[in-house]
Design brief:
Blueprint (H helix, E strand, L loop, with lengths): L1 H18 L2 H29 L8 E5 L5 E5 H10 L9 H20 L4
Antiparallel strand pairs: 1-2
Length: 116
């Protein structure tokens, strides 16, 4: 729906540009900006709703003890934390926040699908 509206407004904007009608140009430009903002907001919402299932696949570069920087997924980081190869102190603040969220999310998923 928004794409159809933006196409129509863009066509009207082209016509206004060819006629050099500044009032119409400003009006149609403002409408297009509004539609673009709504589309971006909707895409952001859709991405955020889809994100929790992808937490474990996000990749971060961390400094391992005695090693150079290593790129690991959040799932791999959780495994290394479980076996003691990493501690939460080894992670940057933003990475540790993501790891905590992923751990809570995976814990919730396990409890939701637990067969009793």
């Amino acid at each position: 729906m928004l794409q159809g509206q933006s196409k129509t407004i863009a066509e009207m904007l082209v016509k206004a540009l060819s006629e050099r009608n500044t009032i119409s140009i400003n009006e149609y430009s403002a409408r297009l900006v509004n539609i673009r903002d709504r589309i971006e907001e909707l895409l952001w919402v859709l991405n955020e709703k889809g994100k929790p299932s992808n937490f474990l696949l996000e990749v971060y570069t961390i400094n391992m003890r005695g090693k150079k920087e290593v790129s690991l997924t959040v799932g791999q980081i959780l495994e290394k934390l479980k076996i003691g190869e990493l501690t939460m102190n080894d992670l940057q603040a933003d990475v540790s926040d993501k790891v905590r969220k992923a751990a809570l999310h995976s814990k919730r998923l396990k409890s939701d699908y637990k067969i009793t």
